[in-house]
Amino acid sequence: MVKFRASERMVDMLSEEMLTSYRAWLQYEPIEDQSYASNVSAYLKNVAVNLDCDEIIDNALIEWQTALGSMLQMNSAVDVGSELDQGLILKLDASYQEDTYTIDSSENLLTLTGGSSRAILYGIFHVLRLIQQRKSLDNLSIKETPKNKIRMINHWDDMDGSVERGYAGESFFFKDYKFIKDRQRIHDYARLLSSVGINALTINNVNVHKIETELVTDTYLADVKLTSDIFNQYGITMYLSINYAAPIELGVLDTADPLDENVIAFWEKTAKRVYEVVPNLGGFLVKADSENRPGPFTYNRDHAEGANMLGKALEPYGGIVIWRCFVYNNKQDWRDRKTDRARAAYDHFKPLDGKFNDNVVLQIKNGPMDFQVREPVSPLIGELKDTNQFLEFQIAQEYLGQQRHLVYLIPQWKEVLEFDTYAKGKGTKVKDIVSGEVFDNKIAGIVAVSNVGIDYNWTGHTMAQLNLYGYGRLIWNPDLTAEEIAMEWIKQTFGHDPQLIETIMKMVMPSWEAYENYTSPLGIGWMVNVSHHYGPNIDGYEYDMWGTYHYADRNGIGVDRTIATGTGYTGQYYKENQELYESIETCPDELLLFFHHVPYTHVLQSGKTVIQHIYDTHFKGVEQVEEMIEHWTSLEDKIDQRRYQDVKERLEHQLWSAKEWRDTINTYFYRKSGIADEHNRKIY
Amino acid sequence: MVKFRASERMVDMLSEEMLTSYRAWLQYEPIEDQSYASNVSAYLKNVAVNLDCDEIIDNALIEWQTALGSMLQMNSAVDVGSELDQGLILKLDASYQEDTYTIDSSENLLTLTGGSSRAILYGIFHVLRLIQQRKSLDNLSIKETPKNKIRMINHWDDMDGSVERGYAGESFFFKDYKFIKDRQRIHDYARLLSSVGINALTINNVNVHKIETELVTDTYLADVKLTSDIFNQYGITMYLSINYAAPIELGVLDTADPLDENVIAFWEKTAKRVYEVVPNLGGFLVKADSENRPGPFTYNRDHAEGANMLGKALEPYGGIVIWRCFVYNNKQDWRDRKTDRARAAYDHFKPLDGKFNDNVVLQIKNGPMDFQVREPVSPLIGELKDTNQFLEFQIAQEYLGQQRHLVYLIPQWKEVLEFDTYAKGKGTKVKDIVSGEVFDNKIAGIVAVSNVGIDYNWTGHTMAQLNLYGYGRLIWNPDLTAEEIAMEWIKQTFGHDPQLIETIMKMVMPSWEAYENYTSPLGIGWMVNVSHHYGPNIDGYEYDMWGTYHYADRNGIGVDRTIATGTGYTGQYYKENQELYESIETCPDELLLFFHHVPYTHVLQSGKTVIQHIYDTHFKGVEQVEEMIEHWTSLEDKIDQRRYQDVKERLEHQLWSAKEWRDTINTYFYRKSGIADEHNRKIY
To answer: Annotated Gene Ontology MF terms (chains A, B) (predicted)?
Structure first.
């Protein structure tokens, strides 16, 4: 039954030294604590498989044996259909939801019951996670059901091998417009994803260029199928990003009008062929009418007409259409202060609520702009009462240091998930809306842009592995705290030394705040270099067409988005939030400049003036990075050299970059305001 | 003797409609004025060649016959060694300098006497230029000697086919790391160049990348020879840009130390082989220790040691080494206000004066920065008393609108050439130094970066042809006025309609001033987008490492480069200029911010404040572009549609871009200064 040992196949690819990085949180380090080892061993000796095996169960058992072999040097004997006194029993329970599993233990007997093969796989990873954390297996009574039904990753990989907004090397799916033949990386990636409960992904960029348009044609479908199968065997459903203009791009038609008969027929035929070859495909992801991508607007159709046409084409095969809401005017005139990009998603999609097919789902970014270090929650979330929706995060640190800066993203995402929209009165939190519970959606979930590439450690920055890990864990269970998730990850990734754990916790927990401190202040965002989005450039987007302005002058800064005197954006929120943001007195400090234009001398709720806040946070942010470096260097003899050096080099760069941010921002605002730092620190 | 008619070979490549653009100033339009035609015809009926023919003379005669066939539908009979009563006599005079020619006429006999075949070619083009301008050929008594011995073009073409800072399509020398087989373009280019007296060029980028390093090896030498031959046949000597690190790049050695025996031997061997295959090569052009290019600094050697080593290697073959002085710290810290990039060329090369070999020449950019719309003249010019030097201009409009904006560059260059350095007392003008006259240099001249590419009209913007034409004419004779040059060009390019001539003159003459008006003010320069250098970005380079800052704050703007309180840059000039620039009272307005940091309320010599000057010039600059458009559209029925539309579309883009500049600059400085426009015009 056991076909191969995954960790051995890894060895073919990388040196042993690199493998430690590559294994990420699936280290399965040998257990040195003999008392713990002997306590758990009894539960692990045998496995009784009381269910019909499939490839997912195969992979679960391979994982089990690999892990136990590595951690305990034991070979857990697998038997089908037998009963046990000691060991692990696997069984299905048809009354469970698909992804639900329970783990019960008593007297050296561990029972894992799942709603599906995939649930069993998740349960196996759960037990292994417990062991990697050295938790007891005694008297377990665990029931896990994921909060979100669909837990998805989006890749922005192009077929030339590049990754748009990729900071961890090239694609491991594509190179030179071909699928990469060696699929071991994909297999290992599927392991990592399923170990944290991811059950869906797209492999190609939402910006679908010429060649990538052919992914839905026979040119590539056989390869699509091979890739999809690997993910399927880890319980992950694959989707494809498609080009809305495919009928034109492929030279079949001269229109992509969603109401045109030939266009409808084109997509019906395309769907038919795609599902003939790849029957398990999840569906299509579409970025239409966005940042120069074609879409229904070209034909004076609305997004519902566009999405539903595709939805109907996929219906016979159970496929779904994921339609991105990242639609805004990207040819804005900076002179025009009335147009407000923040309004765009709501203005476009709120009027269409209820008009989408059952198998269409709208994908909404967490904030109204674009994955900035600080944004309010998108007001569209809570306003769509009769439309399937996904919440979209970005694990790739496009605006958050591009995986050269250590930034732990879970605290940011938790704020989003815990945000109270008041959509159905107090307590209507984002996490309950996007899970589908509040509005009883048929399709619901969370999606995020991947941060991985072909780098030997997957994510460029070793610490960025935590964001991938944490993403999976958080969307499975949004009630986990950021601390719990980080703690789990540290133990599995770096081991159990208490000083090590405490030190890394001190590095990761304040890292988002530190990044916010030394970059753009008080919710204003942007201030980065154009197009590559790295490093400070305060006016970088100020006189450009992207709708991303700060309006700083010699007196003050900020965007007036109030109903009273501004763009009216605050009116897109439910009353309680509207009032909160509308008033300069109640608007939270950290979002003040997002909602209001204020003088530098305005006194924040913190008691500081805006200008002094800018100076203070920027000096502090750099100090926080200096502390991170101190912490990390104290761990030199507790971590393997490769990972130690990898992180150390990036931290040193982060410090350099943080100083660039600090000095550029402080100098810019000092030059503009003429107001000196109260503490007389060095401003250039 | 006549091998082919050049203009007929052009026809093979382009449609007739495109050919009008392609012919540039060698239109040779049929002469409709019958009285003029009959007056000149007698001079043109026969040609008596009283000299030994070579390929240059061949090409001169081809040009002659092509032109007369086209303009007068006549076939000028060529005879060798005969005497004539009427017609053109060609002869050499050994007492003339190489490029000197005389043209004398009386009673229908035209005598062209040259110091060389090349001088004859120039004389032929001179006569054709007269005819194209409908000038009389009666009683001519012309003697022409070029002011500058070497009159050179630098291409920044890469072998992949791209052109660094190219705005007129790809290279017509290279594609996909090969020489382009069809060399007709090169032939026609050589015609254009020699028609205005250019006698030297490099074909490859000064930034010599990996593959291009092999141009001096047998991989490419046969192709180098073929290309060089075409230019030679028009009196143009070809040079190659070389990679200083070639010994390393080619994998031969692990050092490029100029004092290393093996390095010396490498270059001797390379030179030997190069000259075996391409005996007419002019030599090497080198960009070393500049913008990340390798150089002698790597080995703690100075530039004289680096250049002389190459000089000695070329000496046996009469080759020369052209060594660029564009050396500065491009990893500067913007916080450091003491380091001044403007000082760099002088600081590096002045101490080396007199240390360079006789066959080494230093190539000095016209200004201390980098081809900005307004810079002072490089203080190095006049300080090298015992060193060969070239002055470098840029015809490619890198910072001057990238051939999408109409900017006539001759007025700018004339200011440079007429600048009094006071190197040997009053009246020591740049034009007399770079010509070699002042310091009696063995090698001297002017070089400029090419603005051509494979576009059907050579230069992208039809009007940019004027800058190529004008460059050749100006460096041949710097005493020509900008008006004279423009007038010559208009007549040859567009014809003789008086309204057309007057209108185009009104467009081109103020165009540099207009561009300066709507872009960066008062000599401060930069304020463009990083790396591509197009469009306004006022802080684009402000917090960067390139040494290009404006230091604008809420009170004022400018770089203090005085001896008294600044970087001391003014001290690099001779006393008279030093005093002129050092004092805020005498410093010319147009360079004020280059030399001084002043408040926005500082009153210029013009009587305006700095801030009002900024507003006024920016509103005016846009109006000037609007006037250009009015002028041009008035010519719609006087110009062929292709060229009319080409220019019109670019003018419309220029207007859009000028408005972007105007509004960005005005808004930026209004936000910063808080000072309103006196005339209350729209500032955003």
So the answer is: alpha-glucuronidase activity; xylan alpha-1,2-glucuronosidase activity
Q: Give the nearest partner residue to B335 out of A530, A538, A684, using CB atoms.
A: A684
Long-range contacts of B289-293 (CB under 8 A, 24+ apart): B289/B327, B290/B324, B290/B326, B290/B327, B290/B328, B290/B330, B291/B207, B291/B326, B291/B330, B292/B330, B293/B207, B293/B208, B293/B244
Neighbours of A545 (CB within 10 A): 12
* Amino acid letter, residue A272: K
DSSP β-ladder status, A388-394 and A360-365: parallel
DSSP A6-22: HHHHHHHHS-HHHHHHH
Query: How large is the average pLDDT for residues B215-243?
Result: 98
Q: Which fold has domain A31-144?
A: Chitobiase; domain 2 (3.30.379)
**Domains B150-475+486-494 and B518-559+597-673 agree in fold:** no
Buried b / exposed e over B138-150, threshold 16 CB at 10 Å, is eebeeebbbbbbb
Going by DSSP bridges, is the β-strand pair B237-242/B283-286 parallel, antiparallel, or unpaired? parallel
Classify residue B294 as left (phi > 0), alpha (psi -120 to 50) or beta: beta
The rounded Cα A626 to chain-centroid distance in angstroms is 28
For B624, phi and psi rounded to 5 degrees?
A: -65, -35
Q: What is the amino acid identity at position A241?
A: S
Catalytic residue flag (residue B107): no
Cα angle for residues B333, B337, B339 (degrees, 5° grid):
70
pLDDT above 50: residue A1: no
**Nearest residue on chain B to A673, judged by CA atoms?**
B554
8 Å CB contact of B684 and A335? yes
Q: CATH homologous superfamily of domain A518-559+597-673?
A: Alpha-glucuronidase, C-terminal domain (3.90.1330.10)
Name the DSSP class of B675: P
Chain A residues in contact with B537 (beta carbon < 8 A): 539-540, 543
* Local structure of B184: helix, strand or coil: helix
Min distance B328 CA to chain A CA atoms (Å) = 22
- Distance, in angstroms, between B150 CA and closest chain A CA? 43
Q: Do A554 and B660 touch (CB under 8 A)?
A: no
CATH topology of domain B150-475+486-494: TIM Barrel (3.20.20)
Query: Residue B633: its pLDDT value, please?
Result: 98
Write the DSSP symbol of residue B554: S
| Start-to-end Cα distance in chain A | 68
CB contact under 8 A, B672 and A543: no
Using the beta-carbon criterion (under 8 Å), do B553 and A674 form an inter-chain contact? yes
Separation CA B50–CA B519 (nearest Å): 55
Residue B3 has a pLDDT of 36
The string of pLDDT tens digits covering residues B327-357 is 888 899 999 999 999 999 999 999 999 999 9
- Confidence band, pLDDT 50/70/90 cuts, at residue B12: low
Tens of pLDDT, residue by residue over A224-235, are 999 999 999 999
pLDDT digits (tens, 9 = 90+) for A466-525: 999 999 999 999 999 999 999 999 999 999 999 999 999 999 999 999 999 999 999 999
Full DSSP string of A206-271: SS--TGGGGGGSTTTHHHHHHHHHHHHTTT-EEEEEE-TTHHHHTTS-S---TT-HHHHHHHHHHH
pLDDT in tens, B518-552: 999 999 999 999 999 999 999 999 999 999 999 99
Domain boundaries, chain B: 31-144, 150-475+486-494, 518-559+597-673
Length of chain A: 684
Structure ipTM over 0.95, yes or no: no
**B334, B539, B552 ranked by CB distance to A538: nearest:** B539
- C-alpha to C-alpha distances, B77 to A303, B43, B128, nearest whole angstrom: 75, 12, 16
